[in-house]
Design goal:
This protein has 8 helices and 15 strands. By secondary structure, the chain is an alpha+beta fold.
Length: 269
């Protein structure tokens, strides 16, 4: 395992311990709202602090982009390396006692993801990937599913919950895919949804309005597992736009084709 990945795993497991302890007394947590339908708890912050502490100790010069604390430079100023962190993806699930959430950590170098960890502390499932070295679940190599037909595919998605500008377009996509696939699922944690594409539990995934920390690690998992990731037109730039499609190579074109009629100009970028 690459040293950066080893460090990310250590950080993710430490955050997972914090989250698991807190999950036993969810009703006692302090919960605040950053904006409509976007919550943060003291657990998010404690887990993020633990992750950053471990990363800073190992790589003090690296930059960090984290959901709760934002962007910070390393000790040497600007860096070619940037850690992208979501300490608790699926906070809404967590505060309701819904056991579908994860820690997500990715390392970016000159705009390319190099290492990725998505850790599900509920199931003790550790998804990891390094660029060019494949994707793994608990040290077992994983691949995207072999399904080739959209009509046989199980597709994950996420409902818009912060910005409502594109709800009508999204509902059009949802209806189209509801009719053309074997099923749609909305578990509520994009990092895990992408990990599920990587290991074949989902045959594809799409969502709009995500943040970089929601998808950075999961996108590398998918590509290293043999899948494809793009924006809603199949191109790069999904990390900036937050609009993403991921699936098996053979389903990817059909998934894009089903989405395309419902795209507005704003969603094509």
């Amino acid at each position: 395992m690459h040293p950066t990945l080893t460090t990310a795993v250590k950080a993710a497991r430490r955050a997972g311990q914090i989250i698991t302890r807190a999950s036993q007394d969810v009703d006692l947590l302090k919960v605040s709202s950053k904006r409509q339908n976007d919550f943060v708890t003291e657990v998010d912050r404690a887990a993020e602090d633990a992750i950053i502490g471990i990363l800073r100790e190992a790589y003090p010069d690296h930059a960090i982009l984290a959901e709760e604390s934002g962007a910070t430079n390393g000790t040497a100023g600007e860096s070619e390396y940037r850690w992208i962190i979501d300490p608790l993806d699926g906070t809404t699930n967590f505060i309701h006692g819904m056991p579908q959430y994860a820690v997500s950590i990715a390392l970016e170098h000159r705009g390319l993801m190099q290492s990725a960890v998505v850790f599900d502390p509920v199931r003790n499932e550790l998804f990891t990937a390094s660029r060019g070295r494949g994707a793994f679940l608990n040290d077992r190599r994983i691949r995207v599913s072999r399904r080739a037909k959209l009509g046989e595919a199980l597709i994950g998605t996420g409902f818009p919950y912060r910005v409502w500008d594109h709800v009508d377009a999204y509902l059009g996509m949802f209806k189209e895919l509801m009719e053309k696939t074997s099923g749609l699922r909305r578990p509520g944690a994009a990092a895990l949804d992408l990990a599920y594409v990587a290991c074949g539990r989902f045959d594809g995934f799409f969502e709009i309005g995500l943040s970089p920390w929601d998808i950075a690690a999961g996108a590398l998992l998918v590509t290293e597992a043999g899948g494809l990731v793009g924006n809603l037109t199949g191109e790069t730039g999904y990390l900036d736009s937050g609009n993403l499609v991921a699936s098996t190579p053979r389903i990817f074109p059909a998934l894009l084709a089903a989405i395309e009629p419902h795209l507005t100009d704003a969603l094509r970028s």
